[in-house]
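Can anyone check this?
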Amino acid sequence: MGASVWEISSGFTLLPEIIQVWFDFGHDQVFTYLLLSADSTGTELARTMKGTDRCTSNSAFCVQTDISIALGFAGFLFLGLSSLLSGFRVVCFIINGSRFHI
């Protein structure tokens, strides 16, 4: 985020363009897969908890778990979109020699 703000405000990248493109794409991929892994683990744990006596229909913990899982998957969708956009920038860089598609 800091690198993007710097780039927008100054017009220059912190790293050389080729490294910046792959850096952004790689980090989007890593964080997307980490978030998906955490969401799937949280979903399984919530399912396990719902099968016990701890989780009743009006338990605040269970409601918060459901909301947390839903927000986690929504975050995954936004990170997936960010990953697609950074992948598009990588492809533009490979084809055009610049990540800015003109």
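Reply from J.R.: I decoded it. The helical segments are 2-10, 17-50, 60-96.
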